[in-house]
Sequence to fold (388 residues):
Amino acid sequence: MTRHAAISTAEIVAPAIESSGGVMVEAARWQDYLSLLKPRVMSLVIFTAFTGMVCAGGAMHPLLAAVAILCIAVGAGGSAALNMAYDGDIDALMRRTRRRAVPSGRVQPADALALGVALSLFSVGIMGLAINVLAAGLLAFTILFYAVVYTLWLKRRTPQNIVIGGLAGALPPVVGWAAASGHAPLNAWLLVAIIFMWTPPHFWALSLYTTGDYAEAGVPMMPVVKGVSSTRKQILAYSLLLAPLGVAPALTGLGGPIYLAVSALGGLGMVVLAVRLVFSRAGEPAPPLPLGRREGLYDVRLAARPARDLFAFSLLYLFVLFAALLVERIPIVHGLVART
Amino acid sequence: MSNPNDEDAKAVRARNGRNILLALSLLAFVVIVFVITVVKISGNVVPH
Fold:
C-alpha cells in the first residue's frame, strides 16, 4: 500500500471510530441505523394500518396498497428515529435502552435526526403524490404528534405522557383507511379509539416492573409520580373502558360474529387481569436479592407477575382484535359467516 | 488492548455495510417512483 493510500484510509476511517466523550466506540453498522426505526413497533403499526386498509374495502391497486403500507412503515420509522435522536440522554440512563445506537455513541444524535427528517419527508411526500392528500396529511400529523407533542413536550413533563402521546400510535388504522378509500369515517376512528384506550394499561403494566429505570432517568411515568397503587387502579379504570369499546365495532357493523366473540372474551380477560393486578403488589419495592446474585434486565419478581401477565395479554388482545377483523374479510370466511 | 489494524478493518467493513444499505435504499426509491408512475399512467389509458 502506498503512503498516500494509507493516509487516505486512515482519514476516512477515523471519523467512524472517533471517541465519544473520550471513550472509544464502535463504528456504526447498517444494523444500527435500522434499529433507529424501532422495527418491532413498526410491525404493529403496519399490522393495524393494513387492517384499516382492508376494512375500508376500496378497490385499491395492490402495488399502490404496498406503497401506502411502505409509506406508513417508513413514516413510523422516521418518527422513531426523531425520538431516538432527542431521547439519547435519558436512554443512556435506563438499563432497557442504554445499548441503543445513540446512547452508546455508535450513531450521533445529528445523524439520527437527519435520518428521521429524511424518512418523514419521503413517506409523507410519496403518500401525497401516489395515494391521496388526506392519507398524507394524517401521516404527517401522526409523525409530528409523536416527534413534537409526545417526545419534545409530554414525555419529560407529565405522567399523562403515554395517554395523550398514545394518539400517535393509535392513528395508523385511520391512515390506512384514508389511503384505501380517501375517507376517514367513524368506524376508522373507532379503531383509533380502541388503540388509544389500550395504550395506558399496556404501557403502565410494563412501567410497573421497570419503575426504577424511569425514576433514574427522571421520566415522569405514572408509577413514579402517582405511585404504584394509583397506577394499578388507573390500569383497571382504562381496562373497564376498553372492554366495551373493543366490542363496539361489532355493533357498528365493522365486525361480525367472530369479532364479537373475540372482543367480548378478550375484554373480559383484560378486566380480570386488571382486577388481579389491583389486588397485587406489582411495582412495590422487592426485597433485596441474595448476596452475589444480580437481577437480569428482564427478570420479573414474583410480586410483579400480574403486571407482566397483563402486559403480555394486552399485546395478544390487540393482535387478536385486529386479526379477527381481517379474518372476517377473507372471502370464504365472509361467505360462511353470512350464511349463518 | 485491541490491534489498531483490526479496528480499521472493522470500521471499513461497517462503512461498506452502510454504503450498501444507502445504495439499496436509493435503488428502492427509484423502483418505487417507477412503479407508481407505471400504475398511475396505466390507470389513465383509455381502452380502445
